[in-house]
Amino acid sequence: xxxxxxxxxxxxxxxxxxxxxxxxxxxxxxxxxxxxxxxxxxxxxxxxxxxxxxxxxxxxxxxxxxxxxxxxxxxxxxxxxxxxxxxxxxxxxxxxxxxxxxxxxxxxxxxxxxxxxxxxxxxxxxxxxxxxxxxxxxxxxxxxxxxxxxxxxxxxxxxxxxxxxxxxxxxxxxxxxxxxxxxxxxxxxxxxxxxxxxxxxxxxxxxxxxxxxxxxxxxxxxxxxxxxxxxxxxxxxxxxxxxxxxxxxxxxxxxxxxxxxxxxxxxxxxxxxxxxxxxxxxxxxxxxxxxxxxxxxxxxxxxxxxxxxxxxxxxxxxxxxxxxxxxxxxxxx
Length: 333
Hints:
Elements: H1 2-33, H2 35-40, H3 44-55, H4 62-65, H5 70-78, E1 109-115, E2 120-126, E3 132-136, E4 145-146, H6 147-153, E5 158-161, E6 180-183, E7 186-190, E8 197-203, E9 208-213, H7 215-220, E10 223-228, E11 232-235, E12 238-239, E13 253-258, E14 264-269, H8 281-290, E15 295-299, E16 307-309, E17 312-313, E18 325-326, E19 328-332
Antiparallel strand pairs: 1-2, 2-14, 3-19, 4-18, 5-16, 5-19, 6-7, 6-10, 8-9, 8-10, 11-12, 11-15, 13-14, 13-15, 16-17
C-alpha cells in the first residue's frame, strides 16, 4: 500500500516538476525578452529576486552573470544579507504548560494552512515544547532515511526535516550531516570544521536555543537536542531581515520557531511547482512573526522540505524522486 502511494506521489512529482520546468523555461524566455526591464529598469525588487534566486542555485547562476558584472551582483547580494549574529535569550521564554489546547484536538497540535502570493504551506502548532525531540536516521553518518520512516521508527505523531547534510551535486544519500548534531545532551555527530557552529534546538526545559555556540556551551546551556543550520530569522522578538529578501531567492522552505509561552511553530512552504513557486527568507520571517514567534530559524529547505502528520506526508516535496533521504528531523512524540 505504501509502495503504491509512493509510486503515485513520485509520478505526480515528476509530472509536476516537468510542468514546472516547462513553465520555468517559458518564464526564462519571457525574462530574456524582458531583460532590459528586469535588469536595467526601475523595478529593484524584481531585479533583486531574480539575482538572489539565481545566485543561490547550483545550475542557474548564469541568469545573473550573463547580464550583470561581478560588482553589481556582489552589491545586490550584500544588500540582501542577514545579520543573525545574536543568540536567543533563554530567560525570555516562559514555558506555560497550562495553556489551553482545546482548539488543537486530542493530540495537542493544530495544522494551519499558509497562503501567500507565490506560495502555500503548512504551519504545525504544538503547545507542549517538551514533546519536541530530535529524530535520527538509523545509520547516521552513512545513510539517510525518509522523514515518514523516521517518524514511524520513533513512534512519533508528526515531524519536519531539520538540519543540513552533505549533498554533492544534489546526489547525496542524506546520511552525513553538516555541523553538529546533539541528541539527548550528547554530540552524536561533529564535522569539526568550525569552533563555533550555528545551532538550532531545545534545552531540557523545552526552551528553543538558537545561536552560534561552542561544544562546551552545549553542556552549559543544557541543550538536549540540536542541529546545525542557518540563518536565524527571529531573535528575541525581532526579525533579523531589515531590508531585502534575505538573499536566498525563492524556494521550498522549512523553519521552526517558538512563542514566548513556549508554543512551538513548525513551518513548511512548498516550492518549484504549480501553485507554489516558493518563499523568500523574508516571507518565512514574516509568517513566523505574524504567528507570534519570539525566536525562529531557517532549516534545510529545497527538495528536503517535508512535513509528516499522523503518518502521512501533508505537503508536496519538490524532489522529482519523491521524499528525500535525510539525517535529522524534529519530531513530536
